Amino acid sequence: MTVLGCHAGMPAAGRASSGYLVTTGKCRILLDCGPGVATALSAAGGVAGLDAIFLSHLHPDHCHDLLPIGTSLRRVARPRPVPLAGPEGTVALLERMGRLYGLGSPYRFEVNEYRPGDTFVVGDCALEVYGLRHVVPNCGLRIDHGERSLAYTGDTGRTEELTRLARGVDLLLAEATLARPENGDYGHLSALDAAEVARDAGAGRLVLTHLGSTDPAWVAARLAEARGVFGGPVELAEPGARIHVA
Questions:
Q1: 131: Cβ–Cβ under 8 A, 6 or more apart, which residues?
Q2: How far apart, in whole angstroms, are the C-alpha atoms of residue 89 and residue 81?
Q3: Which of 19, 81, 233, 240 could make a disulfide contact with 108, Cβ separation 3.0–4.6 Å?
Q4: Smallest Cα–Cα separation from 60: which of 32, 100, 79?
Q5: CATH superfamily for domain 2-236
Q6: For residue range 146-181, what is the model confidence (pLDDT) as tens digits?
């Protein structure tokens, strides 16, 4: 997994918003594409070899760069459009983007508006969608590749389905937006929440992403909190980092 962007909300301190490129010997899957991700993707093999894009939800910091990615796809030779899996409303969002910029239909996507519980296959990977808790519809994704597995949360609050998503995975890529756990309805995790989920689900490793601050002291405190709860390896997502899932 290559981290293309990892900041919560809009880009900050040179860090793009959410975007992660999962690569096997037979496929390349992009998880979310917030602002700045298209630029990072262009330095990590570009759009030509993409086999699928998965959107966890339709907040701009997770889907804004569909526009430059879709427009770039018009300029490359491909036998078919790129499969794009997103929540209900993805088709309408693409149409609005096209009208806003006067581009008509600039996208070469084959859109599948998924529902929680859906499964599909991309290359040599099996994917499963889990409905989680956020202010707008958000789904996490589990990717199984042989005996290796990765789970990605998108944005979510605590929920039993989140623990199911992470059950026994080799690597849990979890948002850690907040300094402290929340009890409200918006739906975000703290590093402490993510660590407790990883522990309870029996995950192998935890990677914290979607951090709510770039302040070194704030980030160090979140990392220490997570390591105090989860006994496995805990890492921070860093732009450009390449993380082996094993």
A1: 115, 116, 117, 137, 138, 139, 161
A2: 19
A3: 81
A4: 32
A5: Ribonuclease Z/Hydroxyacylglutathione hydrolase-like (3.60.15.10)
A6: 999 999 999 999 999 999 999 999 999 999 999 999
